[in-house]
Fold these 3 entries.
Entry 1:
Amino acid sequence: MKSLTGSESIFDSIRRFDGDGNEYWLARELMPLLGYKQWRRFENAISLAQFSCQNAEASIDEHFDYLPEAANGQGEGRGSKGADFKLSRFACYLTAMCGDPRKTAVAQAQTYFAVKTREAETVIPVISDRLQQLELENENLKLQVELAKTQERLSNNQQKLLATVHLLECVSPGLAPLALGKVDAVVERIEYIDRTITDQGIYEGVGITYIQKKYGFKNTTKAWEWLESVGMGKASGVWQLQLSAVESHKLPPYALAEIAKKFSNKEGDRQLLLGE
């Protein structure tokens, strides 16, 4: 082979020019000069070169002009068959760089096109760094996406957990810690109470109907009679008159336990009023 950097290089001998005076090489003519016998294998090297071109932020269409078989059959390929590529000097260099390094012709082509290519002088030196940067950016992006997905799952799980805890606490204090694995949690039974919000404040408690139904009195009158008999009637000071749309007596939550105790101990006129 002649001097690879001189004007009489074998690579110069197959160089072509288009109507605008731009130089190019046909891939099928370049293929044997790089030591390839099968177009399939050489096309693999071209594909890798196109990938490198893209990563170098250069135009693939500009440097790798695809020629369909029909177009190639009209004299472009000097009798060659099949599809072809019009390669710029930069594309030839990339193809040589992606070729089989065991082939001596490939190494010689790398030297030739590196020396002669302006793009190689300005773009190629940064391709490796650019590829590494792209790989790093890609890995960082993957990690960010995975982190975002993990955070979203954790947020959703936390919201579900908080909703469950709130629901369990509404049912009974201590039930949520027990469900979460705290074996020594104390579960307390709670009474459902009414809450009224007015301009004068917030009132909580239960009405006489609640007491009547809870302890089985036939009507509210008998429920009041029993409460009077155990010292917890209207005049006892335990009941609060709540100023809502309709005034009503409410028993504060703290008094419910005392009511339950007196009823359990059969205090007052319980037996008489219930017919026990």
Note: The CA atoms of residues 34 and 106 lie 5 Å apart.
Entry 2:
Amino acid sequence: MAAADVLSCPMTVNICWFSAAFFVPFVMISFPSAVLLVSVLSGCASGDDGKVKVAVYYETLCPASIDFIRYTLKAIMDDDYIPHHIDLNLVPFGNAGYNPETKQYSCQHGELECTINRFQGCVIKKGGGNQLQTFKAIYNEEVDIHKGSNKWNTTANEGLPQLHEVYACRDGDESWDIVAEFAKGKVSVEFTPRTLASN
């Protein structure tokens, strides 16, 4: 059966929730990867472009989120097939709290995580890159964070077409608008990372 035949099969997955909390970095294909792959191949598709909508809710300083991005999501985005069949939505707001009236923002791993979450929101919304460019920037930031580097807000994003817009967003009120948008669309998340695939 050709790949096109597989994609046109009638089986769909309505909503697939799963957590990467038990991801082991040395496993060749993790449970989240397997679910994403099955979702793509089974036609769990949404939108006019026929792509699987995949949302990843994560926290920028959460060790499990960092490992998920560095290993599982990296393997998926490096694949020759899967990235062309998913619409990836990265949401750095997994366990955060936000009050839009007071602009009080709290994060599980403290104030620095809130700052990085806001910055990554600007990268995602204002960077002007396609999903592979955006993912690469987020991936590079998380690698820098894992190494203990403070370069996460500079060199990691050099490949983005609209880098000046990212910094303007970071330094202005627009980052708060993005946080408010993430807060509005927040799903109930007990553990991060949490991934949702839907049709």
Note: The chain has one domain: 13-198.
Entry 3:
Amino acid sequence: KLPCTRENDPIQGPDGRMHGNTCSMCEAFFQAEEEKKKKEAESRNKRQSENTTSFEELCSEYRKSRKNGQLLCTRENDPIKGPDGKIHGNTCSMCEVFL
């Protein structure tokens, strides 16, 4: 929570809503960002806890895309808990370890 004054200096935020002043607009923005991060983390945790799929099933599509025995993975940040119990940066990097 930001220590905002009650100064009345209305400003329209990037969300299209009117805020009492710049500080209260920033406070609303930070709160929305925090809620968004919380929801994303909950979604990621739910996906990981529901993941009982084997490496073979998860990695079948990547098996075809190997070049010279290696996978060419992006650096996409989409953490996933693999069947090995470890957290991997994304599905491709997890499959790279397996394949």
Note: The longest helix spans residues 22-50.
